[in-house]
Amino acid sequence: MTSSSSSLATGLNDDFRRPLEGCKVVEACSYISGPFCAQMLSDLGADVIKVEPPSGDPYRNFGHSWEGVGTVWTNSNRGKRSVVLDLKSPEDLSRFKELLSHADIYIENWRPHVSASFGLGFDQLSQLNPRLVQVSITGYGPDGELAKEPAFDALIQGRTGLLSYEAAGGTPRATNTFLADKVAAVFAAQMALSGLIARDKSQKAVHLETSMLDIMSYYNFPDMFHNRTFLDDDAPVTLAPQPVLATSDGYLVLSPVSGKQLSRTLDAVGHPEWKDEIKRITDRREMTHAFFTRVAGPLKDKTTAEWLERFRELDVPAGPVNEPSVHLTDPQVIHNELYSQLQTPAGTLRAIRYPARYNGHLLKPRGPAPGLGDSNGESFKG
User: Fold this and answer.
1) Which residue, 60, 156, 178, 347, has most beta carbons within 10 Å?
2) Domain boundaries along the sequence of the chain
3) pLDDT by residue (tens digit) across 223-257?
4) 250: buried, middle or exposed (CB in 10 Å: 19+, 13-18, 0-12)?
């Protein structure tokens, strides 16, 4: 891998090297899937150079903002450097190719025809840099009838069956989080890392093409398609019930999965006599429904904290339904040191670390998201 000229601090002991230190990544992406993928590589130590058009990544100003800074964009672009290039300009296109000639990984999420229009297809780039790992993220794939269509999170959720599945017989509704974009980012980062291994084994450039359609289909399959796994299985769609249960002051979630845990749950709510009744129900789905229906009544008599303490005593899997702001103050979250504070021109922001420990070291945020074109004057050779 090439040496990194990044001056971003690791926030760790001097004798610790993040696993991707020395790896150079060029990212030409917008929205979430590509940028969030590149941020993960930055968290792992890569030097990420984000290439933006003169107007900037259009997602910079999407949604909620603070002091003119889009927070969703900020949370997907930490620890990078920003370079502004107008690829319609021959001079800037030449500089972009110079960046790619020194890169280990190139991530782009343009529609399939865009790269070719700039002369940036894999055939050209692999000649320019025989050690390049190119990750191309599209909505529907590099070819086919949908290849050139725009793709966004809710469209992918709908096409892959997720919205219908989650509706459980009701009106389909997209989730309130950009699930497809973020899942695509995780898979794309995994692909990029596998590409480095494949490149070093073959000593050739590697092109990894993926799509949000492919990724979400893969992600959904293990449980969502459990009754379509065998071709002759035409059973109706069934969902494993996971109700949110009300207490006297809020809500909690119960997840007993074994017979012992189900039994201890009924002991906890003070109704062991229900065990025989529930055992006599032979249909598993009907039994689960009966179990939660019975348990729901007693839960309303005590607070969430009281029930959680009781369930903990009997080793029953249970947890609170926290609002996001409460999650931030969760004692286990604080103990795990998930969040750090970073200083920016717009004020102090909260940033989450990479979710792994390397030999006991936490990979805390390396730096905030860059201002547009902050690194235009820097040299990226070598």
Assistant:
1) 156
2) 24-222+339-362, 251-320
3) 999 989 999 999 887 776 678 999 999 999 999 98
4) middle
